[in-house]
Structures are given as structure tokens and as C-alpha cells.
Amino acid sequence: MTIVSIHADRATARKVVWSGDRPKDPIETSRHDGDAAMATGEDDKARFARIVLPHLADAYSLARWITGNRTDADDVVQDACLRAFRAIWSTADGNPRAWVLTIVRNTAYTWLRKNRPAALVGVEDLEAVENAQAGRGDAEAETPETALIAKTDSAHLEAAIAALPAPFREALVLRDVQGLSYREIADVTGVPIGTVMSRLARGRGQLIKTIGRRAS
Amino acid sequence: MTRAMIAEDPTRLVHAYVDGELDPANALALETRMATDAGLAAECERVEALQRLIRQRLPREAPPAGLRARIEASVGMRRPRVQPTWRALAASIALTAVVASGATSIVLAPTSLVLAPERTEPVREAVVAGHIRSLMAPQPFDVASSDKHTVKPWFNGKIPEAPRVVDLARDDFPLAGGRLDVVGQTPAPTLVYRHRKHLISLTEVPAPGQPNAAPVLRTVDGYNVLDWTDDGVAYWAISDMAAADLDKFARLFRAASPDQ
């Protein structure tokens, strides 16, 4: 259990308590930037409106891709926003979108662990899953032509992305749907850039083959 | 070093290459290799095709209508949202009517001229309802013309002041026509613009005395709604197109000269 003092406010000292099971949580590791913000006279709500609210659509989209349904995504985004609000002084102004997405992602996995443990592939099983998936994909499907990829309809594409293993899916969504750089994806998902690269390559490879299988 | 990297896993590098994440030396080396390796070049094309597919076909879904309001309420930015009652609606109509009539506006205290955020909610809902209704009608406008010199005079005699109409055809937002919407009980001029296959309704609601305000985006029932205030008129732009495109439309509209 760690206790982090987020911001010693003029009137009230706020403290936020988190259980210590999220080592890469930006709320715990990001630097204290309250003084700079204090100088501008911005209050909690104004800061929240400026830093978090503009990224609500991205937050909801990521939550939906991770949890796989709208109701859960709705809950996750509300939880995440509340956490972001409580920690609003713990982030610098550098990259609010990546900060918000990191909180949404961590909240989503915490939420899944608690409510839908079956939907979650633990990080420890990941290598086995990656190898099994990669092996199976290679054996079963022919790699489709470019023209075939272009003919895929929305529903099949959505289903094929949803069927990807979680780590591949989140890398792909962050890159190809939300347009984050490899560096940002590495920060949001807490893995090295090399891992981001290989997850993207394998996720896309698998997606292309799934599309080919459906089409043929 | 570069050679070694390429030899190690060229397929993986193709993805980084397509994403623009390779350093120039490795990018050049990969391009050289793809020129002779048909398999690798094909992989590159497939990745690009997949990205195009995701951009064009993957449905974009706006957050549910009430999510933002619930979040704002949960952090104390506003009271939990209540459905607008006829009373609130009537109050806003009365205010709009009084303000619009002009002659009586001097008796109002200056503070009452600025609509509080919750006061604008009935306006927003009326404006969105107008847009949705227009999409269900045989055609979304009462006067169909891409010529502003036809659309603008059509409003003569129907409303006290002619709306601001600008020509944005050059920027791929051609005018399609105009109609009268009713905001509360006040007729409000609405222009209809096109952008590719999307329609944009732009409703102009008189708001004398209100300060100019930059566009604010909200999502209502899956529609993007952008509102801003210029020179005493509140503009409401509604469309199902992407927020970025709607924002571009607003920028062009505000910057354009009506006298061209």
C-alpha cells in the first residue's frame, strides 16, 4: 500500500490512496507539478476540463476495445475520469492524451480483473498465447492479396480486431485507430518499444490472415 | 549494424517503416531491399492496405450521450442532469423572444442577457431535434439552392433579420439550401451545407448582448454539435460527420466574408 500526496493545496491538503498493485500507474509515478499550475490560478475543475474532457472520445473508444462492450466501457471511463480528477495535479501538461489513455487502460484492466477475470489473459501467459497464436495462424491461412483486404466490410473488420489477443489488440488500436507513436504506446502500455513493435507486427499479421480466411 | 537489423527480422521492420518509425538509415536499407524482394514489398502493401481499411471502414463511435454529463456531475462540475421541463423551455423561449424583440432589451439587466449553460440546453435539444427531423423529411430544406443569393432572400419576411450566409463551396462545403426551424416557439433560420455525403445544419439563434465565444463541441444522440457566438448571434452546427471536419467547417464559416 502506498500513499501519495498529490497536491498540497492552498486550503486543503488532498491525499490519494491507491493499492500498490499497479506499478506503472502514471498517477503514482508522474512528477508533481502543482506549483506551476498553482501560479496560473487554475482550479481542479478547470484543469480537469482542459486536460481530461477533450479526450473523452478516445478514452471511451479504448475502453470499449479493451472491455469488448459498451456498458463496461461506460463504467470504466467514469471510474478512470474520477481517478484522473483526483490526481489532476500529478500530471505535467506535456501529453494529456497519453496520460488519460494510460489511466483508462489501467482502470480497464483492474475492472476486468475484478469483474470479468475470464476475459483477461494474464501477462504471464502472454508468451505462450503469442506463440500459439502465431503458430496456428501461419499453418492455417494463406496470406491474402491487397485487393482482398480492401474489400473487407466494417462488421468483419471489427470482429477480427475484437478477436485479437488483448496485448496485440490494444497496441493495434492505439496505433491504427488512435494514431499514437510507438513511444507513446510504450508509455501507455508500460512495455519497451521493441515489444510494441513486435506486438503490432504480429497483431496486424494475424488480422490480415483472419480477414483472408473470412473472405476466401 | 543496419545490415544486421534487416537480416534479423525484415518483416517486423516493414511495420515500423509504414508507421514512419524507422530511422532514415534503416528506412533506406529496407527500401533498397524491398526493390528486389517481392515478398517483402507485398507485405508492405498489405500493411498499408490494412491501415487504409481501418481508417475508412472501422466504425467510429461517439461516447454515449449522457456520459460527459455524468462525469461532469461526478466531479462536481454541474448538478446531475435533469430533463428540461416545459417550464425551463418556456423560460428560455421567453428570454429569447424578449431579447430578440430588441425594443425591450434595454429594460433587462445586463446579467440576464448572458444565457447560463443550463439555459442553452433546451436550445441545443431543439436544434438537434430540428436536424433529425429534417433528415426524416423528404428533403432536409425548404429552399434548395447552392446559391446564397437565392437562399438568403428566401428568409425575407419570415424572420426579423436575415441570416448570415457564406459560400464555402471552394472548401468542399457547398451550400445545399435553407429552412426554418423552431427553437422553442421562435422561428430560427437554418442553413444546410454539404460535405461529401454528410449534411450540416447550421441554425442561427439571436443572442444580443452575449459576448463572442469560441466553438464548443458536444455530442448529442451521436451527433456532433458545435456552438459558438459571434456578433450577438449564437450559431449551432450539427452533423454526423467527424468532429475535426465540423470544426473545420466552423473555422471556415467564421472566417469567410458574407459579401463575396
Helix amount of chain A, in percent? 55-70%
Number of helices of chain A: 12
* Rg on CA atoms of chain A, Å: 19 Å
The assigned structural class of chain B equals: alpha+beta
Q: How much strand of chain A? A: 5-15%
Alpha-carbon distance between the two ends of chain B: 60 Å
Largest protein-protein interface: A-B, 43 and 37 residues
Largest sheet, strands/sense/barrel of chain B:
7 strands, antiparallel
| DSSP strand tally of chain B | 7
The whole-angstrom Rg of chain B is 25 Å
Give structural notes.
The complex is a heterodimer of chains A (216) and B (260). Chain A has 216 residues and is mostly helical. Chain A contains twelve helices and two strands. A two-stranded antiparallel sheet of chain A has the order 1-2. The radius of gyration of chain A is 19 Å and the shape is elongated. Chain B has 260 residues and is of the alpha+beta class. Chain B has a seven-stranded antiparallel sheet with strand order 1-2-3-4-7-6-5, sandwiched between helices. The radius of gyration of chain B is 25 Å and the shape is elongated. The chains are: A mainly alpha (216), B alpha+beta (260).
